[in-house]
Amino acid sequence: MRAKEINPKIDRNEKVIFIRGLQKAFDEFEVLKGVNLDLYKGENLVVLGRSGTGKSVLIKIISGLLQADEGQVNVLGREVSKLTSKELDALRLKIGFSFQNSALYDSMTVKENLEFPLERHAKDMSVNERNELIDVVLDAVGLSQALNQMPSELSGGQRKRIGIARTLILRPDIMLYDEPTAGLDPITSIEINKLINEVQRRFNTSSIIITHDLTCARAVGDRVVMLLDGHFQRQGTFEEVFAAPDERIQAFYNYNFID
Ligand SMILES: Nc1ncnc2c1ncn2[C@@H]1O[C@H](COP(=O)(O)OP(=O)(O)OP(=O)(O)O)[C@@H](O)[C@H]1O
């Protein structure tokens, strides 16, 4: 797969996430030891790292699910640690989570699954507006025909797409994808990579994509960062990061890459 062409709409004057000196430990175990991160408006940032390096912890801190021990974590202009729980709920609505375990409700149709977040968070929306929005997000993920199907009738890749549609329906500014291609075959993975780029273009979202999948990293990342030993050791385009003469990075590459 060819490397991604960097999105020309990235606005480097606007940081939607700004993190400085982030530290997080669990008892004696220091997971994040001073992480700095910028996510620019319109950018897809890939965070790579081996298992247990703290990628999920980072996402949880960004979304206020975990507290940082030290450092500044600013999301859409708000300092996360200073928010009340109500303010945090409001901020979370601007963040779309596509987590590995964000499963669909099996007893509901695709349409009902998509209506669910609207019923909770957009109570005043008319039926017509809802239906229009459902059309828009289903079209975006290429599954308009699945409207009345049950999740059990869909493939793993299609369920993943509907999960992303359900996240998009609240029109988030930021998308957080945790291992978006995990458990998918290579062809379906490539389709999900294309979808991540399509979401970026169509909805002008800024995204963090956490993955071990280097094919995914190369296909979707405008910028790639490598989390190693509690710090971001490298960042740049995919090619720049893997051109680094660092044994640990080369080992990661050689072990993972499927070309
Ligand atoms: N709530 C918690 N309490 C104690 N330790 C935790 C907690 N959450 C995470 N950890 C530890 O922090 C480390 C980083 O975990 P994290 O889930 O962020 O890894 P990861 O990089 O996302 O790994 P993977 O790719 O396997 O998902 C792990 O050693 C984990 O055991």
Automatic annotation (TrEMBL):
Residues 17-254 form the ABC transporter domain. Keywords: ATP-binding, Nucleotide-binding, Transport. SUPFAM superfamilies: P-loop containing nucleoside triphosphate hydrolases. The keyword Iron-sulfur does not apply. InterPro entries: AAA+_ATPase, ABC_transporter-like_ATP-bd, ABC_transporter-like_CS, P-loop_NTPase. The keyword Glycosyltransferase does not apply. It comes from the Bacteria. Pfam families: ABC_tran. GO terms for molecular function: ATP binding; ATP hydrolysis activity. This is ATP-binding cassette domain-containing protein. It comes from Pontibacter cellulosilyticus.
